[in-house]
Amino acid sequence: MRIEEGKAVSPSKSPTMADGVERMDNESIKPEKMFTLKKWNAVAMWSWDVECDTCAICRVQVMDACLRCQAESKRDFYGKQDCVVVWGECNHSFHYCCMSLWVKQNNRCPLCQQEWSIQRMGK
Amino acid sequence: MITLSQRLKKQQDQGVLNNRISVRDRLLARELQELAQVLPTNCLVNHDNVNDLSSFMLIIKPTEGFWQGGSFKFGVNVTEEYNMVPPIVKCLTRLWHPNISEGGEVCLSLLRQHSVDGLGWSPTRRLNDVLWGLLALFTDLLNFDDPLNIEAADMYRTSREEFQKKVNEYVIKYAID
Fold first, then answer.
1. Checking CA distances to A72, which of A16, A35, B55, B164 falls within 20 to 30 Å?
2. Which residues on chain B are in Cβ contact (under 8 Å) with A101?
3. Architecture of domain A67-122
4. How high is the pLDDT of residue A105?
5. CA-CA distances (angstroms) from residue B169 to A35, B61, B95, B103?
């Protein structure tokens, strides 16, 4: 509320201010600028919306490219490393590349031994 | 054109092979370091060729149990598909043990590649786990009920003293440094 009042201090509404009155004659409608914003530094914080785990198969953070993709420096059409994360129904997450190699042999989560089924994929 | 495409394919295959090796070696470099950090004093890791991390010898000297006083060498071979497959472990010292054959085959659940229970190999396991597994074969994991060397297990059931005697004979004959 105070700020509102401060903003409201314009020549038109406070005719008691001496130079306010003067200017009112020159620029009849335009309110006087109390201050100008010259520089503004915006700071943003972010974090992953999931727990940022290490892939238990290749031991690299799931949000980074897996060890295999790093070694092969695989990149997609846009030049980004295309190594996504996969979450199982058991809520364990791995690199998709790592997990797809493992399920070929044994369709179980290597951490909890539950039958592996994909809950979601992505980053 | 055909030769070119064949050539390209060959190069690609070669590339894939090289990369698999490099993945294994990257994993190994880290795991061998971890292994060195936790290695108990009665164990030793020995690389014949320091440039080849994938093949080494693990020497275990049990400090308790039937095989106390012996020095048992295990050859560990980490194949290119590691860690999707377990390392191949062979016992190079002849011994009288229910779970290790006289030929050197080791019966340890975590070294099994295909297993339906949760005890077999999994890519979350590391060389450390292999070491602890092998060490435990001389103590906690020693299993007379599911033997590889049936004769040894039968002998234990009939007479513990006889079993210990035979173990000692083998130790003196084959497993003294």
1. B55
2. 84
3. 2-Layer Sandwich (3.30)
4. 87
5. 96, 16, 9, 17
Given A59, A72, A106, which is nearest B114 (Cβ)?
A106
Q: Does A115 touch chain B (CB under 8 A)?
A: no
Whether residue A36 lies within 8 A of chain B, CB to CB, comes out as no
For A113: left if phi > 0, alpha if psi spans -120 to 50, otherwise beta; the answer is: left
pLDDT, average across residues B161-166 = 94
**Chain B residues within an 8 Å CB radius of A108:** 118
Q: What confidence tens digit (pLDDT) does each residue in A66-100 have?
A: 988 887 765 555 555 578 999 999 989 999 999 99
Q: Which of B19, B120, B124 sits opposite A71 (nearest CB)?
A: B19
User: Is B21-175 a CATH 3.10.110.10 domain?
Assistant: yes
The Cα–Cα gap between A72 and A62 comes to 17
| pLDDT for residue A50 is more than 70 | no
Cα–Cα distance for residue pair A26/A36, rounded to 1 Å? 21
CB contact under 8 A, A71 and B22: yes
The answer to whether A99 faces chain B, any CB pair under 8 Å, is no
